[in-house]
Amino acid sequence: MSIESSKYPTLKQKLSREMVEWLWILLYLAFFFCVFASYKLVILNQLHAACFAYGTAVLNALVLSKVILIGEYFGVARKHENRSVLVPAMGQGSCVRRAGSDRAHPGRRDTRSSPRAQSCRPSSRT
What angle do CA 117, 122, 126 make, to 5 degrees? Predict the structure, then answer.
């Protein structure tokens, strides 16, 4: 069996595939971040700061695209592949609402002792 007929991709093939995937994610994020930056510049009438706004938008897209690829590499979202997107989003939203309700209404009954409020808190293991 020769090296060229191997079914495993070479390092160069892996690198080129990852770079193409990273480039597509980068272009997608950069487009939307630049659209949001343009909207902010127009609404606030700060067109003199366009270079900074677009530069930070592209920098944010660079960082976030690499974080997405690293997350895919380590399989961060594999446990949620077969679930609806709505279920985890609603679960996290309810934790945020409950946590924020304590500060918004200081005269309210304390919900920290309820089992439902305890499920949203990170465990305090030492």
Answer: 130
Q: Which residues 6+ apart lie within 8 Å of 49 measured at CB?
A: 41
Report if pTM > 0.85.
no
Q: Are 64 and 84 in contact (CB under 8 A)?
A: no
Give CA 19 to chain center in angstroms.
19
Domain spans, the chain: 11-80
**57-108 pLDDT, tens digit each:** 999 999 999 999 998 888 887 777 777 777 666 766 555 555 555 555 555 5
